[in-house]
Write a structure and sequence with these properties.
TIM Barrel; seven-stranded parallel beta sheet; 10 helices; alpha/beta; 13% strand; 7 strands
Length: 289
């Protein structure tokens, strides 16, 4: 399904135009200005926007240099203070102060929600405890749950794929996710459920990335169905993340196969996000934008 077709598909199911997955300078891999992002959302006719900044507790410092080298690729634009900031955390007090200023300027034209994208880690009771305390204290409007690391390895870069192979790394990604969704019961939406496939090196598979992407569900159906069953039972949403449509997989997250399984299992609670890391991308792929 093309990006435009996906936009029409999602629009038919949802009347409110929203982008509930947007990053700004508070995220390590973004230098975006919050005001400019709101202005783009208004320009594109959105009803509401959520600034869901990255928080991946104890993200491996070893990846700092690779992140620096990736600056300018895949929509990544690092904050000027990148070298002086902890990786994938932010100053929550400063974030809410900026959010308050932006709400004061634009709140009569668009609903502006607070948010956070939590990097979930299996078996890390310390991180689970830290996140619970953060959520209890700050009461974010939108809490995205994401898997960005697979057993502490970063699939954004090719090294992990070369060590493990595509099928094995993807299978372990979903195993990590199952363990995490079992433990983390407080996120509001499970973000880009099949995110990992964005970054599989094509030289490791014997067919085009879009074809491989469609096969992921059949190879991991038992695990994925368990993940979907847990979030459906709890009332947690599944995110439709449009960023994948602009990568090698040429499709939004989740795949049609995973979405069909979600419906079959009784799921009906979706959120929509562009995963924008700079203002020009806010609303991309949503509602025909």
């Amino acid at each position: 399904m093309s990006a435009d077709a996906d936009a029409r598909h999602t629009e038919s199911r949802h009347s409110m135009k929203e982008d509930l997955h947007v990053h700004t300078r508070f995220s390590t891999d973004s230098g975006a200005d919050m005001r400019e992002s709101v202005e783009k959302a208004i320009e594109r006719g959105l009803d509401r926007i959520a600034f869901t900044e990255h928080w991946d507790e104890d993200y491996p410092e070893e990846y700092r240099e690779l992140i620096r080298k990736a600056n300018g690729t895949d929509g990544m634009k690092l904050h000027p203070d990148f070298d002086m900031r902890p990786l994938f955390t932010f100053d929550i007090k400063e974030y809410f102060e900026e959010l308050g200023r932006v709400r004061a300027l634009y709140g009569n034209r668009i609903r502006i929600l607070s948010g956070i994208e939590l990097g979930l880690r299996p078996g890390r009771k310390d991180i689970l405890k830290k996140y619970r305390e953060m959520i209890d204290e700050y009461r974010f409007d939108v809490i995205l749950g994401s898997i960005h690391l697979v057993n502490d390895e970063e699939p954004y870069y090719p090294e992990a794929w070369k060590r493990h192979g595509a099928d094995a790394l993807i299978g372990e990604y979903f195993n990590n996710m199952l363990e995490c969704v079992t433990e983390y019961d407080f996120f509001t939406s499970l973000a880009h459920i099949d995110y990992v496939v964005r970054y599989v090196p094509e030289e490791l598979i014997d067919r085009a990335a879009p074809d491989y992407f469609r096969e992921v569900y059949s190879k991991n159906a038992q695990t994925i169905d368990k993940i979907l069953g847990i979030i459906i039972k709890r009332g947690q949403a599944l995110e439709v993340n449009t960023k994948g449509a602009f990568t090698q997989i040429e499709h939004v997250h989740p795949s049609d196969e995973i979405m069909a399984a979600y419906k079959r299992l009784g799921g009906n609670h979706l959120t929509y996000g562009s995963d924008a890391h700079y203002p020009e991308k806010v609303g991309d792929g949503i509602y025909g934008i």
